[in-house]
Amino acid sequence: MKEIDIDSWERKETYAWFSKFANPCYCINMRMDVTDIANYCKKHGKRLFIAICYAVTKVFNGIPGMRYRIQDGKVFDIEKGNICYTVATKNGGFVNCRSFADDDFETFHAAADRDIKKAENLAKNIEGDYNNVSIIDDYYLSYVPWIDFLACTQPIPDNLPESNSIPRVCWGRYSEKDGKKELTLNITANHALADGRDLSEAFIGLQGAFCCFEGFIRGNK
User: Fold this and answer.
1) 118-132 pLDDT, tens per residue?
2) Residue in 131, 160, 181, 185 with CA at minimum distance from that of residue 21
């Protein structure tokens, strides 16, 4: 993680403007073709959720605007982000879970699968460590497996830059028609750190990963 020199930063004025907002975040929702990545997961016995998480970490880690974070009034480039997400527990509640990024998909999947299975067996709800703002090298990910929605908004705390500087991603259940699988994916980011160009690059990168997932995996080893 490296600190950004705000005074010489090309985003200095944009950062200063949007940092005045109580909630500087905005979002874009986009329909995504997940036919290939879903078929790959079914064929190879992988969790689609984890595969999408892997794609998010790889794509986002290649975009500076998605890596910028605010902590104690300073801006940092985390260089490599991990994933933080919620898992449904056996009692119907939710527990916070964190998995570390890895360049190799098989290693990433195995570790995240273990983390999820461990969390699923917990008989407790989310506790005080939820969205721990002392940890900023994360991407917050949410999955709504019950419905295929067209858009969503994310809950963002006001006046808490450490939290609202962390990009959030949410997606729902995919719908299938004529063999094509589609779902809506939401990306929410802090406008002081990321512009529409950054979110567009993220969507384009993710769609490329989803449409040729096996090639994406090979290219990131």
Assistant:
1) 888 776 655 545 556
2) 160
Give the three-state DSSP class for 68: strand
H or E segment to which residue 213 belongs: helix 213-219
Cα dist. 82→21, 108, 191 in Å? Answer: 27, 11, 21
**Distance of CA 152 to CAs 30, 76, 195, 198, Å?**
10, 28, 19, 19
Summarize pLDDT for 30-82 with one digit per residue, the tens: 999 999 999 999 999 999 999 999 999 999 999 999 999 999 999 999 999 99
CA 182 to chain centre: 18
CA–CA dist 217, 221 (Å, integer): 7
Alpha-helical regions (H) of 88-195: 105-120, 161-164
> What are residue 140's phi and psi, to 5 degrees?
-90, 120
